[in-house]
Amino acid sequence: MKSSIMWDYMEEETDLLKRLMEDREVSEKITVFQNMQALYIVAHGSSFNAASAVAPMLSKLCHIRVYVYIPSNFIHNAHSLKCENKDNTWVCGISQTGTSRSVLEAVKQAKEEGFSILGITNTVDSPMEKISDVCCHLQCGEEDSNAKTKGYSSTLVLLWKLTLALAKQRKSISDAEIATIRSELIEQIEYLPTLQKQTYEWCEQHRYGDHMNHLYVIGNGVNFATAMEGMLKLMETMCIPTMFSDIEEFSHGMHRSVKPDSYVILLHDGKSAEAMDKTFAYLNDKGCHTLMLNGANSQAKGNVMTWKAFPHTSSLLLFTAVIQVISAFVPEAHGMDPNRNANDDYTECMNTRI
User: Of all residues in the chain, what percent carry a pLDDT higher than 70?
Assistant: First the structure.
């Protein structure tokens, strides 16, 4: 166990996220966004999920319109962009490597139409940085893994930093609120090593993932996006069918496919608590392998993992940390490398990188 490079990347998260929190790049560049009224974010995969997680709070705290698109949907269906004022609307492309072909195509199209481009990438002087009017860097180092972990966490933190810097500039929330949110993020970052260790030990104790052949991840609120990321991570590392759902949508068809051998992860951050608790009880009665991650100060027991509530940030980093550990633990428990080749030639077929 713990032979995958993913474990090394996860162990790096605390230090690199602390450095990212203290880095001044975002605050030094924030003045260019002082007239921003709308932000269209374009990203794939984990970057799309991270943007979807933070976008609601970016809109709420900074009083701007925020939309998140996958590249093809942006290119073909973002018709509302045509209605925006080019002087106060930005398009943001997120690509950890800075070489995502379709993200670059999307932001190039927006740039040609006269919109300013914010690039978010890990790679200095990448194609993403070169096409951008302003670029911010994830600073997470190399990540040679199919399933991104530290890159995803860094994207969450960078987007939160952008949110807080923009809110401070606009005075849209108080300095005390900004300090509270920042404190929550830092406390979660400092707790990551403990939670990673606890999650690994819990998985070992409960032999989590035995005979796992399909998985559902259910969340809500901002952690609906974390459910999307959970689905993606286990799909990437276990290479099995996985699905995500909002807790209120689970009863609209998806519940019919649940079987006694189903694995279900519930992300409970205090929102829709009654629906979460009822679903948890129902799935337990059906004999499913049900795990609840509870960031709402509930008592830990059996198949419930819990921690202190972080209401302003919905425990985004902590839900993410547990998902990341599970995504590396389960395939290794089955004797498989989480980063093994699994139709890797498809990305070459589709020319996903330039």
Answer: 99
3-state secondary structure 41-55: EEECHHHHHHHHHHH
Q: Report CA 96 to chain centroid distance, whole Å.
A: 13
Torsion angle in degrees (nearest 10) through CA of 149, 155, 161, 166: -160
Tell me the backbone φ, ψ of residue 336, rounded to 5 degrees. -120, 150
Q: Nearest 5°: CA angle at 17, between 238 and 308?
A: 80
Q: List Cα–Cα distances, 193 to 13, 62, 165, 196, 212, in angstroms.
A: 9, 31, 27, 5, 26
Dist. CA 247–CA 267, nearest whole Å: 9
Are residues 178 and 167 in contact, defined by beta-carbon separation less than 8 angstroms? yes
Dist CA 57 CA 53 (whole Å): 8
Percent of the chain with pLDDT over 90: 95
The string of pLDDT tens digits covering residues 284-302 is 999 999 999 999 877 767 8
pLDDT in tens, 211-251: 999 999 999 999 999 999 999 999 999 999 999 999 999 99
